[in-house]
Design goal:
Blueprint (H helix, E strand, L loop, with lengths): L14 E2 L2 H4 L7 E5 L3 H10 L5 E5 L14 E3 L3 E6 L3 E6 L4 E3 L2 E4 L6 H8 L3 E2 L2 E2 L25 H17 L1
Parallel strand pairs: 1-8, 2-3, 2-8, 3-4
Antiparallel strand pairs: 5-6, 6-7, 9-10
Length: about 170
Amino acid sequence: MPKIQGIQDFEGKGVSYCAICDAFFYKGKDVVVIGNGNYAIHEVETLKPITNSVTILTNGEEMIENRDITVEVLQKKIHAFRGNEKVEEIEFTDNTKMPVNGVFVAMGTASSCDLARKIGARIENNHIVVDKNMQTTVKGLYACGDCTGGLLQISKAVYEGAKAGLSVLTN
């Protein structure tokens, strides 16, 4: 979690950590994604068809993901989130401000796909390829949930996790 004044105050009140879960709350609204890598781009791709606009805020960092994106990227350092009942504005360290309806925090490091790729598992469309028992192309390596694609929800991850666990026991 970034150390930005007001971030915890507005969690669930305009600050979210999951675009697939919360994007529909921002239909036709202006949102930002905080991050500079693959996770941020993934959230942008989820939000673009639903929201009015999406801007990436790198919080002073360089973009490390080089995929072609068609959204504005600001590298300004964030000072604080402001608002009354919900987040309404972002204040930067240079004292400029940006009105906003929602903030999606998408900062992080290596994804499950990065690890699976290093181990030798097959990746397609940035998702780990699994068989019907959730086994990857590497014997003994199982994957489930968001990293395997499809409907990215907790219920899917729980189901696939249970399936993978049972497969491990029977193999």
